[in-house]
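User: For a benchmark we're assembling, each entry needs the component sequences followed by a predicted structure for the full assembly. Here are entry 17's components. Please fill in the structure.
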Amino acid sequence: MTDQPLYAPIPLQWVGPLRFSGNVIDGEEVSVPLATYESPLWPSVKRGAKVSAFVDGGIRATLVDERMSRSVYFRAEHAGAALAAAEDLRTRREQMQEVVSGASRFARLVDLHVQHAGNLLFVRFEFTTGDASGHNMVTLAADHLMPWILQLHPELEYGSISGNFCSDKKATAVNGILGRGKNVVTELTIPRRIVQRLLKSTPEAIARLNTEKNLIGTTLAGGLRSANAHYANMLLAFYLATGQDAANIVEGSQGITQAEVRDGDLYFACNLPSLIVGSVGNGKGAGLETVEENLRRLGCREEREPGANARRLAVLCAGAVLCGELSLLAAQTNPGELMAAHVKIERNAR
Amino acid sequence: MTDQPLYAPIPLQWVGPLRFSGNVIDGEEVSVPLATYESPLWPSVKRGAKVSAFVDGGIRATLVDERMSRSVYFRAEHAGAALAAAEDLRTRREQMQEVVSGASRFARLVDLHVQHAGNLLFVRFEFTTGDASGHNMVTLAADHLMPWILQLHPELEYGSISGNFCSDKKATAVNGILGRGKNVVTELTIPRRIVQRLLKSTPEAIARLNTEKNLIGTTLAGGLRSANAHYANMLLAFYLATGQDAANIVEGSQGITQAEVRDGDLYFACNLPSLIVGSVGNGKGAGLETVEENLRRLGCREEREPGANARRLAVLCAGAVLCGELSLLAAQTNPGELMAAHVKIERNAR
Amino acid sequence: MTDQPLYAPIPLQWVGPLRFSGNVIDGEEVSVPLATYESPLWPSVKRGAKVSAFVDGGIRATLVDERMSRSVYFRAEHAGAALAAAEDLRTRREQMQEVVSGASRFARLVDLHVQHAGNLLFVRFEFTTGDASGHNMVTLAADHLMPWILQLHPELEYGSISGNFCSDKKATAVNGILGRGKNVVTELTIPRRIVQRLLKSTPEAIARLNTEKNLIGTTLAGGLRSANAHYANMLLAFYLATGQDAANIVEGSQGITQAEVRDGDLYFACNLPSLIVGSVGNGKGAGLETVEENLRRLGCREEREPGANARRLAVLCAGAVLCGELSLLAAQTNPGELMAAHVKIERNAR
Amino acid sequence: MTDQPLYAPIPLQWVGPLRFSGNVIDGEEVSVPLATYESPLWPSVKRGAKVSAFVDGGIRATLVDERMSRSVYFRAEHAGAALAAAEDLRTRREQMQEVVSGASRFARLVDLHVQHAGNLLFVRFEFTTGDASGHNMVTLAADHLMPWILQLHPELEYGSISGNFCSDKKATAVNGILGRGKNVVTELTIPRRIVQRLLKSTPEAIARLNTEKNLIGTTLAGGLRSANAHYANMLLAFYLATGQDAANIVEGSQGITQAEVRDGDLYFACNLPSLIVGSVGNGKGAGLETVEENLRRLGCREEREPGANARRLAVLCAGAVLCGELSLLAAQTNPGELMAAHVKIERNAR
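Assistant: Structure for entry 17:
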């Protein structure tokens, strides 16, 4: 047994370029790095990227919201006492921001949500966290807020610094409803002939498959906000390549794919309401240099206002997700194509 | 832009040894490799491992079930036709096994489940897959079964090779209920003084936190079979270190932690019903050698009956999950300990 | 305060006739009784019924499965002991049927499913229950099975006669996946001109609304197998009118509506996998006579093989659900129609 | 077939009295009417009521929040346009309140929440609705808001007056997280000897059963915010007796039961975050008089500030839920008691 520095080298390829427009990146073509043991992922995303290059404006990516959450919880004598404390806290947003500012230069308290369970009081703090994904920042902020609250409300007792109403790396509904990480919508309207030529499919076939598989199939499976084919694959590969906490693909993969025929063309959209990425605080030890280099190549090491590099990163990640999702759905409209592709690529890899 | 072989090097440490007993590994001490950018994970699992060494028999790990699934779907004229086809298929298990055998030497069809949605027929095939995690094997099997079924039932139309009732890498309920991957239960009964000395906590505090955070807190968050603190972290690190398809932490993280005071001691258990691991077909390209070496050190490259190495791997993984889960919960019973540990470790890492 | 017999009189109307075909009712027109405080429900179902009368074959209703469940749970020393007991029980299906036969003439054990949680063993017994909905029958059966199992396995300890893995009157995924009650699919293919004339809408508008509201909207809401507009309303009204345990609308309402344009016409389907109804053991006291009369008028008091009257009842109920669902969706495609209808009907009621 | 006025007479009993304290009812004893075909419900609630009478202060009921929701949805050209419209609407709360005031004297817009799905914009309006449960009031309000918004934002297109993000009578997570109806917490701390004498159980047995059945068992079943034994039964009976829209038991039943041993006594709490009741607008036609009389006897026909009668009603309902929940859990700690009680009561009923 040893503690010497080792590493697991995950194969990485740059894929692209993807063409982007929208409220974060407008009019650029950017390639993305994907680190994965699953080599069929690269040509899959590549095909989607190629489609984006043929579309006017490419992938329209809209960042809708951003925040990072941490929920703590307290024990009160009874629900009445918990309610009184909650009502008091709601009036002290500014004071709480002061406490938070003592813990972090970047953390801004943007909202808080409360849940009662008998005498327990769960408080979900929601922050913007600059260019960091914010796990540590919000924990540190909560770590400053808790003693401050306990001093203010001696009738409350410490429950835990994390009460699972955050909710970190677990399959829950709260993150999609209240927000956690970046909320990014990506859209692509693909001319019919591009669908036919590059995706070997039709707008009708893809739209139908999306309804039957992603919407109805997931519902049958007892799915929770997870109407997609394989967001998790692209998220994992992008997260590993850019030094993210990749266990956040658990909530990150909870999103909805839409596909619709519009005037004979294909409208295709992916919704990622819980995209947890940061452009600082990434990677560690052996992985650090690779990650730094990748972020630099992605243009996320520029001098920008706080948070802008992270938002750029989120949008690039969301673009990769859309490309892979589109490509797999197209493949699954054709009997046999999926497996044939797998077999061929796996063989080439050997 | 280039396609030359690159990799993301994820820092890796061996942690342990963990002591095991149960129906797969009985009476061994084994260390486990964890690859992660999140360095606090190592000491966390290490602390749990130390606890296991102080407990008679260590971690009792019980493998309860194993199977890998793939759901396909068909379109019928109407639900009546879909029902007739489903009833016919249920009588042809042996014939289907023959078809499957043509696709794979190892795949054994162990069950099938059907869902109806109007005229759509979703069929979830469930296989044992030897030492492989089985993603490709079951896709290949489904790829053989579909044309065979379509020939047998010309009234059915191809829907898709994957209908999301599988369900792969998505937050759903079906995998926990019907099984996907290995189902492993790990248990540890920890003497009170060990809880106090090594975990700086008490059985009462840990049991209470588990109820309030993992069970109640997750329920408040709208959680789906996810009553735990952070299974995803350990799963990701173990999966990356052993060449698994780490996006399967999405369903893998859906499990339940139990904690109970028994005669003054702490009974602690983790349930992982969807642990998708294999000891063959792991890693690719640059990662291959590291993965091979890690599997060898874990004792998963021995000559055993098909499936035995994979079951061993699953149990080792589940043990790591229990160690990290126990350690974090213990830490969260103490105000401030969690953050202090984070700050210290992060600083040391720089 | 008094205990003298009182009653809440729920207004009831007969609506229809609905036209049916399928594997339970073939070629009949039947009206259905709906008891509700919400008077707009009647014209809504009425409109759907009228549509069914204009369609060849009317509502195609397919009964896909039937079973009633009860889960018990036991405590074992540890998971290994729980697993051994579970494996033993799986081999004793015939003996268990004998025990069950001592409790009920009609209950037939058709399947059992097991869940492990640490040392806990949950067993979900699944029975057919003749013409009864089966709540009491399966409780009685479980009440006979538990002591028999505890005697056979003295290493197990009584947990509870109901372990919530049943799962009765709660929002869970298990009932849709494993089945509880009757599983009925209803389908209607409506000519475009009927959609236009009777529903004041188009196949395209209804299909689109279904995708955006029932599938996407419910997914956004964190829905669990509940992709419909208002199944609960029709279920409640039918259950009250026919003496059912109407709290079962909780799981009953978890179903999926489909709508698709086919050759210019509208394909519309409702899926009710957890329809818990019985034609015997219904109503009590003051309600008994009304219920009896309603069941008689529905043709569910005929001499048939055991279970046939209950299946007929389930199909009639499912038909009413389809009619109301179709009508509301059509209304919601038109801005203002819904509210106008509400206002008018409420006024007329006064 | 006829449309003449009929009714389904649901047997009704008054049960109690229940003793109450808290922020709505303080220091009263009130009996509650329960209308149900399931006669064992009455003695079950009765037993809980008797317990409440023996406890100092009785049931502590805390009303935590109240609001009624309706979500509409719009189609935009793309997500960017949807985002711009959403941001604009957030600044127009006062103008929207003016529009709402034109629709209803009582409706007050208290919050709004937005969800994006590609180009779709879902807006969840949240109102207080005085003494009404508010279904019609919020529909009417939405019916006024939609044309106003469409005029203000001609770039938006009508989607639907109800987008299922409300979410009405469906198993979703949104209502518990954002609130729908009254949010009521009820608590009871029961001396050990009362648990033993009246409930024939112990605090330890009930706490353990609650953890294993309601929390773990429901989690295994893939439950969604539904950690209870049978809230739906009491809700249905109370709703029918007081003229509510009883289909709202679907979301109403999604709540969490807590049970904990405190200093040897039993702390028992029920959480009902989606209790949809009103004291006006109830019942119709034949049911009207009974409902009126019941509301009068409950003290919900007094002259109070708007909303106060409805809050009183919610608390009374929540008290009945707690009584029935406590009683059933206690019964299930004893092998055989449950079934024996059923058999006896059913026999007496005949």
